[in-house]
UniProtKB/TrEMBL annotation:
The keyword Ligase applies. One of its GO terms (biological process) is glutamyl-tRNA aminoacylation. This is Glutamate--tRNA ligase. Residues 109-256 form the Aminoacyl-tRNA synthetase class I anticodon-binding domain. Residues 1-95 form the Glutamyl/glutaminyl-tRNA synthetase class Ib catalytic domain. It is an enzyme of class 6 (ligase). Belongs to the class-I aminoacyl-tRNA synthetase family. Glutamate--tRNA ligase type 1 subfamily. Pfam families: Anticodon_2 (PF19269), tRNA-synt_1c (PF00749). Keywords: Aminoacyl-tRNA synthetase, ATP-binding, Cytoplasm, Ligase, Nucleotide-binding, Protein biosynthesis. It comes from bioreactor metagenome. GO terms for molecular function: ATP binding; glutamate-tRNA ligase activity; tRNA binding. The keyword Cytoplasm applies.
Length: 261
């Protein structure tokens, strides 16, 4: 009646089913973030949230799961809205957001991650454009592993910290192998002698060591990785060394190996 009194066209109203947590109880704070604003602050993208929320209680007439706003408008229909409660699947949201995150440039991902890196104390608010561009190079290495921007905090310690800490005893044990001294001496010498530092050149150095010392790749690549990052797995080694540079790489090698007694 109000619309009619104002001379406005009466809209159609629809109602979707209740949204439940993954334990199939009513959504509440104990399920984690429950507002759109909270998710945006964590670095979830608007287009991903719209895509995900549209699929809560509504099923498209296909196997398609990634929808642009225009595609949602074109495909949505009330007759495919379910009557049963929908479950808020955070894993599904993370998968959808990761898809959209991969479409961004490393520079865009860096901008999204900056507030979280600043809050974690990795970088201050006076960060320069050169520092951001360097960080973007590293972000390109981890971008495919991120579900949302705030997760960058869990990956950047290897970039910012030159004092390497072993992730566990197994990683430390890698550097106690009998072949470590000759592997490290050879790598440091060859790395220092490179005229141009790039990923291909680093890979060539590592490969040449395996041949010269007649060792398997795991006996060379993993010890170098552990000595530089403290971790047994991580981003491409050649690209990572190129990003942090010779000086920082050699400094890390020396300080880490000094811990092995």
């Amino acid at each position: 009646m109000l619309y009619q009194a104002l001379g406005l066209e009466v809209p159609y109203f629809g109602h979707i089913s209740l949204i439940l947590g993954q334990d199939r109880t009513k959504m509440s704070k104990r399920h984690g973030a429950t507002s759109v604003e909270q998710y945006r602050k964590l670095g979830y993208l608007p287009e991903a949230l719209v895509n995900f929320l549209a699929l809560l209680g509504w099923a498209p007439n296909s196997e398609q799961e990634i929808f642009s706003l225009e595609e949602l408008v074109e495909n949505f229909s009330m007759d495919r809205v379910a009557k049963n409660p929908a479950v808020f699947d955070i894993d599904k949201l993370n998968w959808i957001n990761a898809h959209y995150l991969k479409r961004l440039t490393p520079q865009q991902v860096t901008e999204l991650a900056l507030p979280h890196l600043q809050a974690a104390g990795y970088i201050d608010e006076s960060v320069t454009e050169d520092e951001k561009e360097k960080l973007a190079q590293f972000m390109a290495l981890i971008q495919e592993h991120l579900s949302y921007a705030a997760q960058a905090v869990d990956h950047v310690d290897v970039y910012f910290h030159d004092q390497v800490e072993f992730e566990n005893e197994e990683a430390e044990a890698v550097l106690r192998d009998a072949d470590i001294p000759q592997v490290m001496n050879s790598f440091k010498q060859k790395l220092a002698g490179l005229e141009e530092l790039n990923a291909a050149a680093v890979q060539a150095v590592l490969k040449s060591i395996t041949k010269e010392l007649k060792l398997g790749g795991k006996k060379v690549y993993m010890p170098v990785r552990v000595a530089i990052t403290g971790k047994m797995h991580g981003p491409d080694l050649g690209q990572f060394i190129t990003i942090i540079g010779k000086e920082r790489t050699l400094k890390r090698l020396d300080s880490t190996l000094a811990k092995i007694v």
